[in-house]
Design goal:
By secondary structure, the chain is α/β, with parallel strands linked by helices. The protein contains nine helices and ten strands. It has a ten-stranded mixed sheet with strand order 6-7-5-4-3-2-1-8-9-10. About 35% of the residues are buried. It binds iron/sulfur cluster (2 copies).
């Protein structure tokens, strides 16, 4: 597998309108994954992948044990006896980077950092600008101290008028921070919105720092309790057409240990098992997992949750 998503917390300090985490009731319970469970997730992830993420929902750097969890990851990685490693692609909203940046840079297990800078578009301008400045300061530090670290600054919905004000501002600040101010040389020419199109989504800023644009996706709607345990080919002969790479390239473990098919299933609509009760390999070979995966191979969306999903339309 390319990666396993481990949701170390479902807590976030932002309230993005497009995210189920940001729009949950303030009174909804919030959870931080306990250390013992986290260790089990890491050890199980190491049996199927070389890469983990620390999110499904939530802002991972808010976990009080975030620094310790990086150390545990380093330990699990170096204890592997199959010649492979286990590294982290950290996706963060960047709001804590002034406090957590040094810890992240000091951890050799962090291979890539994705900053969800598109989330700032909904914040009051001053707060957004401050967050972006902290992220760019981190990038400049990383360009010197961690030349091996990949960084992605994410933009959303380039070309959409409602996003353009923030996207333009962000590009201006990136250009300023990295001295991309008008030379004809492509390494120092400013990056503008016009550079992006469906075939050119990623631009190199400097070293291993990129700006990446994508379009906003919709989180699939939950299904009824009866439907969520189905995904059974005998219950329906004509499945909607479609495929997905989930269970082949990735799967996810929620903050309470439920293993789900993909990183969009934040509420456990396709719960395949619990990592406390079974190995990840066994769970990925459970009848439900096999059934769903077989459906993807045959271009059939067998699970009702997948039938509600528009994200999979990206995969032909
Ligand atoms: S920052 Fe990320 S996790 Fe937090 S509300 Fe926004 S999209 Fe959701
Ligand atoms: S089709 Fe959608 S909901 Fe189903 S596994 Fe793929 S991404 Fe997840």
């Amino acid at each position: 597998m390319n990666g396993v998503y481990i949701e170390i917390t479902d807590v976030c300090n932002l309230h993005c309108s497009f995210c189920p985490c940001g729009t949950r009731a303030v009174s909804a319970p919030r959870t931080f994954m306990p250390s013992e469970l986290f260790e089990r997730c890491l050890n199980e992830a190491a049996t199927v992948t070389e890469q983990v993420y620390f999110h499904v929902l939530g802002e991972p750097t808010l976990h009080p044990g975030f620094g310790i969890y990086l150390k545990k990851l380093e330990q699990v990685s170096s204890a592997r006896n199959d010649g492979k490693s286990l590294s982290l692609t950290l996706t963060t909203n960047g709001t804590t980077i002034e406090r957590t940046g040094k810890t992240i840079l000091a951890s050799p297990a962090v291979r890539q950092v994705n900053f969800s800078t598109h989330a700032y578009a909904e914040l009051p301008f001053e707060e957004a600008a401050e967050n972006l400045q902290d992220v760019l300061d981190f990038c400049r530090m990383a360009a010197v101290e961690r030349t091996d670290l990949y960084i992605n600054l994410r933009l959303w919905n380039v070309g959409d008028e409602s996003s353009n004000t923030w996207n333009n501002y962000m590009l201006e600040q990136v250009n300023k921070a990295f001295g991309r101010t008008g030379s004809a040389d492509e390494n120092s020419a400013p990056i503008t919105l016009e550079h992006f199109c469906s075939r050119h989504k990623s631009f190199l800023v400097e070293g291993r720092i990129y700006i990446h644009q994508d379009s906003r996706f919709e989180w699939p709607a939950a299904v009824s309790d009866d439907d969520s345990t189905s995904g059974n080919s005998s219950s329906c002969a004509n499945f909607p057409k479609g495929t997905c790479r989930a269970l082949d390239t990735h799967c996810a473990i929620l903050h309470d240990g439920r293993v789900v098919a993909c990183c969009l299933d934040h509420s456990g609509q396709i719960t395949l098992g619990r990592i406390q009760d079974n190995s990840l390999l066994n769970i990925l070979h459970s009848p439900l997992a096999v059934q769903i995966k077989e459906g993807f191979t045959n271009h059939e969306l067998r699970h009702p949750f997948c039938q509600n999903c528009t994200f999979c339309k990206r995969f032909k």
